[in-house]
Amino acid sequence: MSLYVVLAILISALVTFSLRALPFLLFSGNRKMPGWLSRLGAVLPSSIMAVLIVYCLKGVKSDIIGTGVPSAIAVLVVALSYKWRHNTFLSILFGTAVYMVLLRVL
Hints:
mainly alpha; 81% helix; flat
């Protein structure tokens, strides 16, 4: 492996680790998070889900039967599972699984 590749990997790892550790260093101890950051943390999961749904449905109008129906059912599964468990990862996992199965079945 080239020295440049190894250096690029090490620098990327260092930057990634630093960015992940920064919030813990800034808000450790008695220091509280700002109000706007707390509100952002409360709103962001739902916003991410909305963006993912819009992105997934952007190509539905071109093929209603092939991808439209499975996409609509998968969106319902994601919405219902998120409402049920309030777990973003689980909702995306369920929705993806249902979508993949429906693409094979329909």
